[in-house]
Design brief:
Layout lengths: L8 H54 L3 E4 L2 H4 L1 E6 L2 E8 L2 E7 L11 E4 L9 E7 L2 E2 L12 E8 L8 E7 L5
Length: about 180
């Protein structure tokens, strides 16, 4: 009796088909994992940048003693005095910058230190709101001692074109 050993063509094709299906599923899994990793990495970087910026802005505005110009919605900057002198915070295109100014300065000149570089390029990209216990605080008519809270909000844009992220904090200045 002549017995041939080996695999038939159908068996070989079946094994190759099953291996191909398994490789395709594994490939989709690897691609999904890589996209998830990139998404998480970008979110972590954004959150870290936002946390550092909020911490720096909070430190800068915690000791505010006088606000020269708080018409932030139209000017996109604020000039203020604290225990170390006169400073300014400004939105310039997609950056938030911090400036050290001369004691008598009423405008911003030169370039400042960039705190964050990927904010939304519009009036909603960086907003400061000032509050007293009965509502909005106004530098022109209210005393600095009435200023109870400063709300800092900025919107960061994602480098991958995804949804923008909004970050907000409130600080209570030591102005009394």
């Amino acid at each position: 009796m002549n017995r041939e050993s080996g695999f038939t063509l159908i068996e070989i094709i079946s094994v190759m088909l099953i291996a191909g299906i398994m490789a395709t599923i594994a490939g989709f899994g690897i691609v999904t994992f890589a996209k998830g990793y990139q998404f998480t990495k970008l979110n972590t970087q954004m959150a870290q940048k936002a946390r550092l910026t909020m911490a720096r802005l909070s430190i800068e505005l915690m000791e505010v003693r006088h606000i020269e110009d708080e018409n932030f919605s139209t000017d996109a900057f604020i000039i203020y005095d604290d225990v170390t002198g006169r400073h300014a915070i400004a939105r310039s295109s997609t950056e938030i910058q911090l400036f050290d100014l001369a004691d008598d300065a009423t405008s911003i000149t030169g370039s400042g230190d960039t705190l964050i570089d990927s904010i939304l390029d519009s009036n909603e990209g960086f907003v400061l709101n000032f509050y007293k216990d009965s509502g909005a605080w106004d530098a022109g008519s209210d005393s600095i001692k009435d200023l109870d809270e400063i709300e800092i909000t900025f919107v960061m844009t994602r480098s991958d074109g995804g949804d923008n992220r909004t970050f907000t904090t409130r600080i209570c200045p030591r102005n009394r």
